[in-house]
Amino acid sequence: MWVRVLALWGMARPLIMASVVLVYLAGLLIARARGHAVEAGTAAGAFAALLLVSLSIHYTNEYADHETDALTRPTRYSGGSGVLPSGQVPRRLALQAAWITLLGGLGLALIGWGAGWLAEAALLILIIGAFFGWMYSLPPLKLAWRGWGELDNALLGGLALPLYGYSAVTGRVDWEAALVCLPFTLLVFNNLLATTWADRHADAQVGKFTLATFVPVRRLRWLYLGVVALAFALLLSLPRMTLPPAVLWLSLPALPMLAWGAFTYTRQHTPYPTSNAMVLLLLGQMAGWWWAG
Questions:
Q1: Number of domain units in the chain
Q2: Residues of the chain with pLDDT under 70
Q3: pTM of this prediction?
């Protein structure tokens, strides 16, 4: 039993789950800065449902990627947890845990909606996120195996996740809230470019077609730079009534790390510069939203 508990903990990817917590909190901070009171009970209940659904998505990824994870050299952000390739536990444990956490998370969300403490908008975002999170790795869509995984993951982690937190507080989603999340969404996309680059050889061997496996290196580098440029162009062009100045200024310290990420992308195995830049932007923006509130 203890071995299984440790395996489930490892497959949950605690470091990545910590980023889920931060992005959810960012959604709450955006709502707070726009004049909405954050009720602790509602925020905690919505987070509990999100945590379970997020765990289910991690377990499906571990289940689906066991072959490529056995072939790659893992990092903190890429290559999986290494639990299933190690043979510590049977592969079916990941899928069983995925179903249990999915049903638990959606069940809790439905209870919250019925009891009136979870808004319908938040429930719909969670259901859509669960569907496309599972379809990232599993049939029938298997988006990560067909060149759509980077976009799917970026929209889930960079846009749907903060909007879930925002809608849990406000009861709705509006265009301004979505717009202020787009720069971070773009950097999540670049983070996926970097993490899939580290896994490209293993992915290609098992037939997993990420962008890194079939797009030429030169085009990947230009794509990376174009996404960074678009992210900061959006930050600079958004009206100050929509994006507070504090959020803009506290986003800028991520630029040097992104420059380093652009220089090392496709030239180094590690995704750390890009992943750290994404986290730095997130933390800066969270501090900006807190200040604006």
A1: 1
A2: none
A3: 0.95
